[in-house]
Write a structure and sequence with these properties.
The protein has one helix and no strands. It is mostly helical. The protein has a single domain, classed as Up-down Bundle (Single alpha-helices involved in coiled-coils or other helix-helix interfaces). The relative contact order is 0.05. The model has no long low-confidence stretch (mean pLDDT about 90).
Length: about 70
Amino acid sequence: MGIGSIGFPGLILILMIALIIFGPKKLPEIGKAAGNTLREFKKSTQDLTSDVSDEVKETKDIVKNDQNK
């Protein structure tokens, strides 16, 4: 069982431990911050992938044009 397959019982255990450590008032703030961080990370990853794809396309176009000369 890898780290990506925690399962429902493991998730409940993690949530209970977080509730004990941070308390019920602080937990929504932490969840919101974690969600925002994950959203920014995904956006950055998509932007980087898009930039690399654009560069690869431009390079292919340049090579193709040079071969046709």
